[in-house]
Design brief:
The complex is a heterodimer of chains A (110) and B (140). Chain A is of the alpha+beta class and 110 residues long. Chain A has helices spanning 4-7, 11-21, 26-36, 45-57, 81-105; strands at 24-25, 61-67, 73-79. Chain B has 140 residues and is an all-alpha fold. Chain B has two domains: 2-64, no CATH class; 71-139. Chain B contains seven helices and no strands. Chain B is elongated, with a radius of gyration of 23 Å. Classes of the chains: A alpha+beta (110), B mainly alpha (140). The A-B interface holds A 4, 8-9, 11, 25-27, 30, 44-54, 56-57, 70-72, 74-75 and B 11, 23-24, 27-28, 30-32, 34-35, 37-38, 41, 56-60, 62-63, 65-68.
């Protein structure tokens, strides 16, 4: 299991990526991360929801109250145009970082 | 759901300014309540769902991880606040014990040489001691 220390700088990007695919509510985001990483990434909900609050304060995402299918109301989050632009920028940086790491590590990370 | 809000408020008690704290408490509580509702919909009894949500939620440090640039600032503010609390407790202690000592010695013959201010001095020692403990736990 990877600790949140290593991946901390990428939590924003992970959340934006998930919200780029579809709107989600807090616990749904937590569940989606667990499922996709097969529990390899242990992010505490306290961190996740706090990052969500920070992203909303920075207007990278926005929230609305929506109906959950077969359930009550949930506070859903959606990515904003600013969030999409920030996500694209981060992905470009990520690719540069990937190239640098590949160039240095070579076969060790293939 | 009152239990959830209380839990989150306690977690953030010493951190953030009032407005940020209110917003964060709201968002964290809503997300936790939604988790409880999801668990209940899946068949978990309400009490067990609340307990599980609180247990799995994480700590104050986990919240602070979401604010990497600010966590040092939050910590420094807390240390300052606790040091202030400790110094105030020491001042209060000195005033109370000093007053007791003065009354005790001034009316010594009335109290028949019984030095009861020692009881006051020991009895109120818990105040600065508790404040010192709180200060040291965050200073580490």
């Amino acid at each position: 299991m990877i600790s949140s220390d290593i991946i901390r700088g990428h939590i924003d990007t992970i959340i934006l990526k998930l919200l780029l695919e579809r709107d989600m509510y807090g616990y749904e985001l937590a569940g989606e991360i667990k499922t996709r990483t097969a529990n390899k990434f242990d992010i505490r909900e306290a961190t996740l929801y706090s990052v969500v609050q920070r992203l909303e304060a920075r207007e990278l995402i926005s929230s609305y109250t929506g109906e959950k299918s077969h359930g009550g109301q949930r506070r859903y989050y959606r990515i904003t145009p600013l969030g999409k632009a920030y996500f694209r920028e981060t992905i470009a940086e990520w690719k540069v970082l990937q190239d640098i790491m590949r160039a240095i590590m070579g076969d060790d990370i293939r | 759901m009152n239990r959830i809000k209380k839990f989150v408020s306690k977690l953030l008690k010493d951190y953030f300014n009032e407005q940020d704290k209110r917003e964060l408490i709201d968002i964290l509580s809503i997300s936790l309540e939604e988790k409880v509702e999801d668990l209940v919909e899946q068949g978990t009894p309400v009490d067990a769902a609340v307990r599980r949500s609180i247990e799995e939620f994480g700590s104050t440090d986990d919240v602070l991880q979401a604010f990497p640039g600010k966590s040092t600032e939050f910590r420094a503010n807390l240390v300052r606040k606790r040091r202030g609390g400790f110094l105030f407790a020491v001042f209060g202690y000195v005033v109370v014990v000093g007053l007791a000592l003065f009354v005790n010695l001034w009316f010594r013959s009335f109290f028949k040489d019984f030095l009861w201010f020692v009881i006051v001095a020991i009895g109120t020692l818990f105040w600065p001691a508790a404040m010192l403990y709180r200060y040291r736990t965050v200073k580490k």
